[in-house]
Amino acid sequence: MTIRSTGQNWALDIALAQGGFDALHPEAMGTLEQLGHDHTDFEKVFALVKSGAMLPKAWATVAGQAEERALHHERGGFTRTAVDLYIRAAVMWGRAQYSVFDAADPRKAAFRERTNHCVERIGALRDGRVRRVVLDFEGKHIYALLHLPAEPVRNAPAVILGPGMDMIKEDYLYAAERYYTSRGMVALSIEGPGQGESRAGGLAVDLTNYERAIGRYIDHLAALPEVDPQRIGMFGISMSGYWGSRAAASDPRLAALAAFEAVTGDFQTIFERAQPTFKNNYMYMANYTDEAAFDRELVAHMPLGDMVGEIDCPVLYGIGEFDELTPLEQALASYERVTAPKEMRVYENEFHPLGGAAAEVFRFGAEWIERALNGEFAEPGRDVRHYVHRDGRTTDGTANPTWWLGTVPPAITEARAKA
After folding, report:
1. Quick check: 225 and 153 in contact, CB under 8 A?
2. Angle 381-383-385 from CA coordinates, rounded to 5°
């Protein structure tokens, strides 16, 4: 636990009691719906929550209800209805296990078993088109879910679906089919070091091993007959936008990257000014209990800096104007350092979850990845920028907010000078 979180738990509890999840993550429900959560389940969960300590019970309670209903429909032969409910149950069991920050706690393992059971039923009811993947990685294991199209494919484009720091591979069960396999693409939703089953198995995240894990997943995809090894891209949100950027800078096999909400700033904002839960979570992922050592040994070295200049593949970045984890001027300064074909979209008045634009973001990101893997957007010098207004308009040619009145913050000016 960090010093801030120890002293501020009461504030988080009040926020949950008074405003529910939205008080902590404004408009996040739009994003969570893209990750398979049903809004009625969400309302049931947070009707039971008045403090952070109540979260595991609430998630587990409503997850159990959805799973029971799924079994009812499976027994009746209504397989599509059962799958929908198993997805809802899986993502909620996943939230329940995430809420326990102790890899040795048997409750965490029990919630994980329920998650795995729901995924097994989804795979069975989808004729084996959702499959668990377990890969050896640096003496331990990493875990993923392979999602295949309904019709057999060969040499198809593939996408790695990267979760944020507080997400797991099951969070893409809904999106993988809706946005990728339905288009004839292969999808692999992953857990890297520090996440989900990988962390439970003792694999912590360090400065560089997440991008090596992405490389290991590329190895796996490239060996599948269903996949064209020259057309493997990545869609990442939040911290996976950061990890994906590192992977794109170090592994030329990644052919395209779409990164939304990517943490590309100084890491002081996310770990010292945002909610203390973010730092708590990353310390758990990295297996640190000493906050000073965590700051010195890991955080000080995390900013991407000039590394993004090593990216060669087409990249798409999207971020909320008021992202709580990366100040907009820092995100735009990082974008200036990218020399690969690139595109930036800034969403007016959106926060880190991009909840108000989530349905658009997930569909657009998938369509952009598909087109990029088919050879578009690769022209040298490509630099496309948009400021996306809440009222439906889009200002093209710049991602800078209109209220800046044509001025440019110093961080962006300095980055341009160095690019």
Report:
1. no
2. 175
DSSP structure string for 82-97: HHHHHHHHHHHHHHHH
CA atoms within 13 A on the CB side of 402: 12
Structure-token pair, residue 196:
């989900």
Amino acid at the residue 280:
N
pLDDT for the residue 175: 97
The half-sphere exposure of 180 on its side-chain side, counting CA atoms within 13 A, is 31
User: For the segment 273-303, what is each residue's pLDDT rounded down to a tens digit?
Assistant: 888 889 999 999 999 999 999 999 999 999 9
Residues 6 or more apart from 276 whose CB is under 8 A from it? 2, 4, 5, 8, 12
Residues of the chain with pLDDT under 70: 1-24
Q: Helix axis angle, 106-125 relative to 55-75, nearest 10°?
A: 30
pLDDT of residue 190: 98
Asked whether the whole model's pTM tops 0.90, one would answer yes
pLDDT at 12: 63
Residue 328 contacts residue 319 (beta carbons within 8 Å): yes
Measure the CA–CA gap between 312 and 237, rounded to whole angstroms. 20
Per DSSP, the residues of 308-328 read GGG--S-EEEEEETT-SSS-H
User: What contacts 104, CB < 8 A, 6 or more positions away?
Assistant: none
Residue pointed to by tokens 């790695």 = 160
Q: In what order do the strands lie in the sheet with 130-137?
A: 130-137, 140-147, 186-191, 156-162, 227-237, 256-260, 315-320, 342-347, 383-388, 394-396
